[in-house]
Amino acid sequence: MSLLTEAQTKTTAIIIAAIVIIAIIAGAAYYLSQKPAQTVTVTKTQTVTQTTSPTATTSPTKTVTPPKIKEIKIGLIEPLTGAHAVFGQEAKQAAELIIDIINNELGGIKNLGGAKLKLVVADAGETPEQAKLAAEKLVAEEHPPIILGAYISRMTAAVAEVTEREKIILVMDGLVDSLTEQGWKYVFRAAPKASAHGKSAVDFVLDMAKKKGLEIKKAAVIHEDSIFGTYVAQGAITELMKNGIKYMAEAYPYDISDATPIVSKLMDYNPDIVISVPYFHDGVLIAKTIKEMGFHPMFIAGAGACGYTDPESIKAAGEAVEWYTNTYSYNPARPTEWNKKVVEMFKERYGKLPTEAAGIIFYSLMVVKEALEKAAELHPEDPLNPDNLREAFLALDLTDDNSIAAQLYPTGHIKFAPNGDNIYAGTAVLQVINGEPHVVWPDPEPGIEPVFPRPDWPGAQG
Amino acid sequence: MPGVLAKKLALTKERLYGLIGLAIVLALVPVFLGFNFYYVLLATNVMLAASLVAAWNIIGGYAGQLDLAASAYMALGAVVTGHLLASYGLTPWIGMFLGAGLAVTVAVLVGYPTFRFGIKEVWYALLTSALVVILMRIYYLIYGSFETYIPHMEPEWLYLSFRRYEVYYYLLAAMVVIIIWINLKIKSSKLGYYLAAIREDELAAEALGIDVRRYKLYALMIYAALAGIIGGIYITLTGILSYRLFDPWLGIVTAVMGIVGGLGSIEGAVLAAVILRSLEEYLRGAIGATYPGSHLLVYGLILIIVGVLKPEGLASLIRYVKNKLFYRKREEVK
C-alpha cells in the first residue's frame, strides 16, 4: 500500500469526514434537544436568586415578598499555584480576613437581614486555559453572583469570558488597562489600572516640584516591556504631555543584565526627572548603575508597584535606592480608622504586612459588601439579580465618611464609570528614606516628610 | 462493505472497527457529561492534549526524534489564525490552514539543515527546545507584550466563536480520530517502515539505502501541519493572543506524554495524554488550592512510578491486555 495514491487518499478522507460529521450531528441534535432542559441542570447547583425567582414570577397577584437570603456566595479565583502563587495566596488570606470581618464584626449584609457571605475559592493556575477551567468549575459547582479575580491580565480575561456569559459580576484585581476596554458589561475594577500608576507617579513629582517652587522641563520614561510595564509608562507619558513637558521614552526587557546603555542614554538626554517602571531585578541594576555613573537628576520616581521600594530591592540595592519612590494600589499606612484596624488584624493573623495583592482584595471585597447593601436597598425583591447588582455597583459613591471600603482605598473615594473603572482611582507613593520604605503621598505617614528634590541634585545644594 | 471501507482507508478490519468505535465513544462523551460547561471544557482540553500528542507520535514515536517544539508549531498555527481573525476578520476555517502552512514552512527551514548536518538525539531535542524560545522572541519583537483578545463574533459557525464548548470539543475529537488514522496509515506504509528503520538504527538504515534525511523531513512536516491546525482550533477556543503561546513547557509535556505512552504506539500515546491531562486537572482542582503545589508532587510521583515499573510505557500494558483477550478467545474456540 503506497502512502500517497491521490485518489485513494481523497476517498478515504471523505469517508472519515463523513463518520465524524455523523457523530457531530448526533451530538449536536442531542444538545439542541437538551437545551430547554439545560436551565434545570444549572439551577441544581442552586443559588438563592435562581431558586426564588420562579416563585416571584408565578405569583404575580400577591405583593412581592423579599426573598429570605441567609448566605451569599462570593467567588475568588486567584493563581494559588505556579509562578504567581505568592500573590494569589496573599489575596486569598486577605479575602478570608475581610469575609470574617463582614460576617462577625459587621453582622453580615444588614439590608439583607444580616445575610452572611461565604467565600468559595478556585485556583486559576498559570495559564488562561487553567483560569477558564477554574471559572467554569466554580460556576458549575457554586454559581456565586459575584466573583473576584484573577490578578494576571490574560487569566482575568479568560475568567471574564465565563462571567459575562453567566452574567456574574466580576470584580477584577488585574490592573492592565485593556481589561475594561473590551465592552464587557458585568466587570468592575476598584483598583487603579496600570496607566493610573504612571499618572500618579508624574502627578506626585509635579505636585512636589510646585510645592518647592521648582520647574520641570524635561522628563525621561524608562520601563520594562511587559504588558503591565508598557501600560504604566503610557499613563506617565500621557500625563507628561498633558502638562507640556518634553520627554523621551525607552523600553527594555525586564531580564537585562547590563543597564549601562540605558543610563548612558539618560545622561545624554539629561532630563530633570526620571520616571522608571521596573520589574524587580532590573530596578536594582538601574539604581546601582545610576549611582556608579554619577547621574544626578532632580528626581527619580518609580511607578507600577514593582521594585525600588520593596524590602527585597532595598536589601539588594542598598544605598543606591535611597530617595527612590514607587506607586502602590494600596496604602497600608493610610491613617483612617478601618485601615489601621485591618492592617493590624492582618499582621496578627498572618504575621506579615499586607502588600498590594492583599490590599486590592481588602477594598474590593468591602466594595462588594457596599454593593450588596445598595442592591438590597434599590431592589429588595431581587437583590442578587445580575442587572440589579450592576445597577447597585454603578450607584455607589463611596467616601471615607460613608464606607469602610473608601477608608481602605488610597484616594478615599470610589465611584464606578460605566466601563467598570473607578473614576477616582489613584495610588499611594512610597519613598525609601534612610533605608526604610515610607508612605509620603498623598497622605504621608505621621512624622514623615517626602525628600524632594534629591539631595545629591546639583541644584539642591546651590 | 466494511471490508471495502477498510481497504479504502488502508486499514485492517480490526483497526477500522477500532476507529469507528473510538469516534462513537468520543461523540457520546459530552452527552454522558450532561453538557455541563466545566466537564465539557475539561474534555476539550483533554482532546487538545491528546491530538497534540498523537501528532507528536509521528516524529517522536515513529521517527524516533525527541522533538520538543510541539508548542512552537501549534502556536504558529494559533497566531496566524488568531491575528488574521482579529485584524482582518478572516474565518479561522481558512486561517488554520494558512497557519499550518507557516508551521510546515518553518519545519522545513529548521528541519532541512538540521537533518542535513545530522543533528540527532539530545542535540535535536536541545535545538527544537530552542526553536520555541526563538519563535517566542520573534513574536515579541513584532507584537511586543500586548495581548489581543479575540471578541465574540457572529455568525458563530463562520468565526468559530461559540459561547458553549461542544463544537470545540467535537472539532478536536475529530482531529484526534483523523490524526490516529494518519498515524495508522503511516505505520503500514513504506514511510512507516522507513521511519521504524531510522528509529531503530539510523546508520544501518542509511547503509540500506534509505534516504534518511528526506523521510525524517516528511515526518516533521506532517507533524508540524497537524500541530498548526490544532493551534488554529485552540485559539478560537481561548481567544487570547500573546507571546506566551510559545510555551517551552508545553513542548516538553507533550513529549513526556508521548514517551509515557510508549514510543511508536499511537494507542499508548493517546491514552497517556487522556489519563495524564485529566489527572493533572483533577489533582489541581482537588488538592492544588488547599496544599499549593501538592498536585505537581503527586503528578511527578506518578510519572516516576510509570517510568520505573513500565519503562516501555502504557503501550506494553495495552499489548498485555490485548494478548490476554486474544488468547482467551482462542481458547474458547478450542
Give a structural overview.
The complex is a heterodimer of chains A (about 450) and B (about 325). Chain A is about 45% helix and about 15% strand. By secondary structure, chain A is an alpha/beta fold. Chain A has two domains: about 70-190 and about 335-415, Response regulator (Rossmann fold, 3-Layer(aba) Sandwich), CATH 3.40.50.2300; about 195-330 and about 425-460, Response regulator (Rossmann fold, 3-Layer(aba) Sandwich), CATH 3.40.50.2300. In chain A, strands 2-1-3-4-5 form a five-stranded parallel sheet, sandwiched between helices. A four-stranded parallel sheet of chain A has the order 7-6-8-9, sandwiched between helices. In chain A, helix 3 packs across helix 11, helix 3 packs across helix 12 (about 355-380) and helix 4 (about 130-140) runs parallel beside helix 5. Chain B has 15 helices and two strands. Chain B has a two-stranded antiparallel sheet with strand order 1-2. Chain B has helices spanning about 1-10, 15-30, 35-60, 70-90, 90-115, 120-145, 155-160, 165-185, 190-200, 200-205, 210-240, 250-260, 265-290, 295-310, 315-334, and strands spanning about 150, 240. Chain B has a single domain (about 1-335), classed as ABC transporter involved in vitamin B12 uptake, BtuC, CATH 1.10.3470. Chain B is mainly alpha-helical. Chain B is globular. In chain B, about 80% of the residues lie in helices and about 0% in strands. The two termini of chain B are about 30 Å apart. The longest helix of chain B is centred in the last third of the chain and has 27 residues, at about 210-240. At the A-B interface, helix 1, strand 2, helix 4, helix 5 and helix 7 of A face helix 2, helix 3, helix 8 and helix 13 of B.
